[in-house]
Design goal:
By secondary structure, the protein is an alpha+beta fold. This is RNB domain-containing protein.
Amino acid sequence: MSRAAATSPSLLMPDPPALRAPSRGRRAYHRPVPFRSYGGHSGASPNPQTRSVSLAQHHCHHYHHHQRHGTRTEAIQAAATTSSPAAAAATAAAAARARAAASSNLTATSTTPRRSYIVAAAAVYRGGGGTGSSGAFQPASKSSPGLASSSRAERLADERFRLQAVRGAGGTGSGSGSGQPGALQVGALVEYEKNDRAVLAVLVAPDGKKNWFAVDQTGRRQPITPKQVVFVLPGSGYREGDVAAFVEAAEGADMSMMEVVWEIAIETAGGPLELKELATLLYDDTTPRSLYVTHRMLQKDTLYFKPAPRGGAAAAAIVAGGSYIPRSAEEVAALRVQQEAAEAARKAAEAWRAAVVAARTAKTRAQQPSAAEWEEGPFGGRIRALKAIALSTPRTDDVTTQLALSSLQLVGAGSRAEPDAAAALLVEIGALRRHEPLQLLRRGLAIRTPAEHEQEAAALLAAPPPDPDAKLREDLTHLRVFTIDDVTTTEVDDGLSLERLEGSEGAAAGIRIWIHVADPTRWIRPGSNLDMAGRDRIRTLYLPWGSVPMFPRQLAEGPFSLREGQVCDAMSVCVRLNKDGSLERPRVVPSRVRVNHKLTYDQADAVLAALAAGDGNGTEAAGTGAGAVAVEDGSRGVLDVAAVADLLALREAALARRAYREACGCIEIPLPEAKINVPYSHLDRARPAVTISRISQWDSPSRSLVAEMMILAGEAVGAIGAEAALPLPYRSQDSPELPPASALAALPEGPCRGFALKRCMTRSAVGPSPRRHAALALDAYVQFTSPIRRYSDMVAHHNLKAWLRGDPLPFSGNEIESLMAAAGEAGRELGAAERESENYWVAEYLRLNWGAEYPAMALGWQREEMQLAAFLLQREGLEVVVRVPQGTAFRPGDCCVLAPSEVNPATGFYRFYIAGWTGGEEEAQPARRVGLATRRRQLCKPCGAIEIDFSDPDTQISLAGMVLGLVAGLGAPIWYINRAEKDEERLEELRALNRATYAETGEYMTEDEIAKIRKPKWTDRREWVDDD
């Protein structure tokens, strides 16, 4: 039988079926509740005050009953029988609502749940009438069904009446008679906290005197303590099946109802609301299920309500569910903004995670976003934050650090904001190249020229400044000029010429040597922006994959350089040599020159080698004009006889100069260098083409020629400056303490002797006044021939040209001293950056050629007390330090085979071990080790294993640690597993005994009885009471 139609939606909506008590069902009639159910005393008359309140509650209930099942007139008559003042006020309000409802002709069926009313009311508030900007209710439109004529005041009065009725009833609303506060007992339904998670469970048995065993919705039995309990539902006798029903009802609750309830609460409550009152507003019901669903909704809600302070009534609050305070409209608005921001951040994090996953799963770099796309896309902020961490940017703020940390953690790339982790992620997703020069970037060295400097360089090219030395500049374009550089050189800052002098009657009167030096000071004034930029960079940085120029490339590789076939401004040093190789009347002039022959070292070596072998008729060709020498890949293809003759004369002059300096006591260090080359386009390849080649001026006639001519120019400028007392950046070096001549003579010539001399050399210095340079055996020396790539040479050019013009010097002695001191510090920093880059690429070269063997020569002890010796890789020209096994005797010059044992390009670390000796006095015994090492390598090569030197003490310690770790790692778990299995067997016996005891006596064993048989352990789960 359906319920009668009603007219007051706020009072007539029954419970939804999901929250209705199991015993309630669909009743055909509503039995009046006895007076004692509303606060009266059983067996005695209540006091007048209590009776008046109880009467009000009683008649309010009858008003509610008649509204559900009778007419409006009957409801008003039922409420009018009250006699107390409080009840009279409630009756008047009820009568007003009944009249308003009668005049509106509203209808509602008995099957419409309370939730339907809340949703309908929300639709009316926001649809027909809606809420204003302040969130207050506005009258609904008349077209809204069921609530068209209800005014805001009437609805609020209706809800206020209901709250008063619930508060006076002590928690019983419509259909809630079964919900009475309970305590912890068997059959109680409680919610407890476990691992910061709320769990609903029914208590099934005590666990000692205070604790309990509880079963949750999964059927799992858990021990809990009273401190864990946060909410006790009223009533008792619950079963395990009720837990799942309550949880299911709570999970299906509509959280959107909280907003409407909050709007009602802030208008009607006027203070904290208890759980039963909120359940009444939500569901018109305070049954245990309704209370639990309301409780869970309030726990999930973070916007509209907040828990009221419990104070000293914490236990009562746990039983009653606590009280809640509706937040103000301002608080809700602020929280909503925060939640919207948090939601936006969550979506952004999900998008970032998805983008990284897509980049990681890409099969090629082309399928990944480019570095520019990452930087300019929606994740630009995260990329910049990660780069700041990866490059160890100084003064990184906390916001950037936190953003980088969250970016790493979201994609599982690290738990800390560390540079290596950030760099690895950026490389993985394509935001950095695989071989990005992080060593330079982490030192704050810019790889690219700033945009403002590029713009200033473009302005210089568009409007060249006037030449301050135009009147002094000599035209030397009639001279044949050679430039000899590496094939990769783009900044050509020096060239050579030979001028043959004629005496009386056409007889040869000797030669004059010209060293032409690029003249960037013709374009850059001291103190200009570009000059200050060069002062900051100090010099060009040379790296395996290219260079970082001191000036913008469009200037350094353009008008600054001595370009082939073009007339270029230069500073030309003119010298004549005496017969013994000493200087005679040097001078320096601004000039204009034209480069005729642009040669590489290999091409010049080929020409000189051909002359030495007699090709091209050698010196006869030079003297008679017959013959020529072909030059492969040269700009002109063939050097004519005159050019070959000039090149040969320059070579002979260089030899004479070296003989002169050797006679004066110069110290030559004949150690080769390792030239590492990597194509710039390969920096993002997984396997770049890395090459390491050996270069040495003692092995290359053209390199020796150029080096000697540059020293000659530096001596000439130093002599001019010393004679004129000019403050220039003079380079000097104190005399070293060399080994005894007998010790040096015992060493093989070449690298071994050069290694011994290098260990004795002192550091050079730069000052404004001339001092002797011991290694070069010169009384005054100024580096002058590289002004495009070295700022100290620029300083020398500025002062020397100002002296030639008769102008004031731009740099005083004190300024030069301070500039060179700063340049020394910066130069050491650049040198360290170059070494780090070289170490990285050496390690990468070894990684790419893993398994290769490297013929080497022993140079000598590096640190004999640590068994560390220096070796020279003969093909690569690379000097490495290797630990020599104890008891191994060798001499400098002995040859061996080295192999890498460990390589880490990220840190630039590599380590070699001696695979075997191939020459020297220990040849017989090491030959056996070579065989063993060779067989070991043959076994290891198929699986790519790392070769191990078992004679190395570090290796022995590592192996001992591995053995101990293996024994402990396997033995401890085996012992623990055996112990646990035996204990589990004992526990099964105790459980069987416990169940038998219960079957015989009806009681389980106590903890003391169990402890006498088996002592408790910290690993026990406290599950003695029938855990099956």
